[in-house]
Amino acid sequence: MARYRESEAFSEEERLAIELAVEMAKTPTEVPLELTKKLRERFDEAQLVELAAAIAWENYRARFNRVFGVQPVGFSEGAFCALPEHSRQPPPPRGGFTSAAPHRAER
Q1: Could you say which DSSP state residue 65 is in?
Q2: Which of 36, 22, 35, 17 shows the shortest CA–CA distance to 91?
Q3: Fewer CB within 10 Å, N side or C side of the chain?
């Protein structure tokens, strides 16, 4: 993730989403105008709202967990997510964003 800008593992849209997440994790949060322009070129309003909400929620959870000292419980110990070499799928058509998220296992 440290070199997401140069990595071929991410699409331009994914790089912009990561950049937005990085900016939103800073305190204070100030998204640069240039990034906002790039985001608006690639995403419509509904997509940006959903993206920002998802990032904000994960930031909230991370900060909440720190307050109470929540530590990992071993679900992913030693695990990692290997990225496929050349199986990148094309991005969805503009205006065709779906909000379907992968289902997570019940705990």
Answers
A1: H
A2: 17
A3: C
Tokens of 71: 């530590």
Quick check: 55 and 14 in contact, CB under 8 A?
Answer: no
Percent of the chain with pLDDT strictly greater than 90: 58
Q: pLDDT at position 104, please?
A: 45
**CA quadruple 93, 11, 25, 32: dihedral sign:** negative
- Whose tokens are 């109470």? That residue is 68
pLDDT (tens digit, 9 = 90+) per residue, 29-49?
A: 999 999 999 999 999 999 999
| Number of helices and strands in the chain (H, E) | 3, 0
Alpha-carbon distance 81 to 71, whole Å? 20
Token pair for 24: 């939103």
Beta strand ranges found along the chain (DSSP E) = none
